[in-house]
Amino acid sequence: MTRVSATADGIPTEIMRDYYEAFARGKWGLIFTEGTYINESELQGCTNRTSVANDKHVSEWSKIVDIVHKRNTPIFQKLIHAGALI
Fold this sequence. Notes:
Layout: H1 14-25, E1 31-32, E2 36-37, H2 55-70, E3 75-76, E4 79-80
Parallel strand pairs: 1-3, 2-4
């Protein structure tokens, strides 16, 4: 699954925090995140996909992870790439 609810430059949003917290409240055994790109220049593929390519991205994802962990739910970051963009 790849959602498009981050900012245009890949920063996770409050909507995303609420989304993952809802799963954690539901006592899921493990949450897999949406596809997250790792490179700011080549791999996003379309706008509003989330990223872990810089410190701001990681900082905002850390907030999501902390919220989910407070509900005793593990979370796994799914990394993706958009494929060859020619």
